[in-house]
User: What shape does this take?
Amino acid sequence: MLAFQTDFSLQRYNSFGFSAVAERFVAVEDIATLIPLVNHCQQQRLPLLLLGGGSNLVLSDWIPGVVAHMALKGVEVRRREGTRAWLRIAAGEPWHETLEYLLQQGFYGLENLALIPGTVGAAPVQNIGAYGLELKDRLTGVEVYDTQEQRMRTLSPEFCQFGYRESLFKSEAPGRYIITAIEVCLSTEPDVMKLEYQALRETCEALAQGDAITPQHLFAAVCQLRQSKLPDPRLIGNAGSFFKNPYVSSAEYQHLKAQYPSLIGYPEGDLVKLAAGWLIEACGWKGKSVRNVGVYEKQALVLVNHGGGNRAQIEELAAAIGQTVEQRFGVKLEAEPRFYP
Ligand code: FAD
Ligand code: NAP
Assistant: This one.
């Protein structure tokens, strides 16, 4: 029996804090609830929105159909071989707290992704990344319920088409696969640390005080850096970086760099990744507000809800930012969060 709550407020379930209302809401705590729920939505032709922590979403005031809050729980070690361990983590586990637990248990390799809000199940959707590490670097499989074939499957990382803040789940087949768990390969030795980002390396060195840097230092450094720069969604509504960093050709980069010597770019293969935050700040948007929403004063890539904002206001602000960046630099910005409905 599916126990829906109707006219359910999602204000606490989206990190922008928008006052969205779901027509029907249900928490999915086991696969035995999930499958009848999907069948019901298919039979009744009801749209189904899967909700984790709501930290990468822009919600409208009214969400028709069903909102399913993914609450499947469990972390288990599946296999060990030498210093490697393969773990299955259920979709409804909170991301940051799970990383904290893994660190305590001596499983290393995900520290760069500390303090990212949301759930484990949403992490493959945009292949979450931070400080030079992406989820795909540690992922060995994604367990899903395939709503088209109506069966459980385990998808390989290659099948998931992971890219920069992208995946099959976001681009090609949104809604088809419901992620029930992820499988990762971690290390029991601190041989997997990624310290390429300068600020991260420097913070780790400061914390280690001349000793060897440990995964605990790395985890603490990431938390420290993020807390100094990013707004806490519990205090100021936001969805993290609102725009993806754009990629341009080397020639385009050289052309822009000649005009703007302080432009920040990171070469990746034939392309150069530009820091979208730099472009937005250069257009004078940092700290600006329009009606109830604005651009965060410490990080121009983050749009915030000062209270009473909504989807229309955020869309308007994002469009205005995109327009000025394109006019000035000839670079198109793409939004990172997903809009519903
Ligand atoms: P939600 O917002 O609930 O959902 C996101 C999308 O995934 C939706 O389309 C939803 O339908 C879908 N989805 C959710 N669960 C499932 C499931 N089980 N199966 C299939 N689809 C599902 N992101 C980064 O990559 N790097 C960062 O460093 C980062 N920092 C952030 C900092 C802040 C302050 C905030 C607010 C956000 C940040 N984000 C970052 C974005 C966001 O936290 C991540 O994308 C996170 O993985 C979203 O998780 P969630 O559970 O909140 O997903
Ligand atoms: P930052 O360290 O000030 O860097 C600014 C930008 O330059 C980042 O976007 C980053 O790209 C890029 N960069 C910096 N050093 C780099 C290097 N050595 N190699 C390649 N690219 C480099 O960024 P920040 O705002 O404080 O964020 C820190 C990290 O957290 C970043 O990785 C960022 O993506 C992540 N983050 C993501 C979100 C989100 O919602 N998606 C929100 C907050 C923070 P990348 O973004 O590609 O790493």
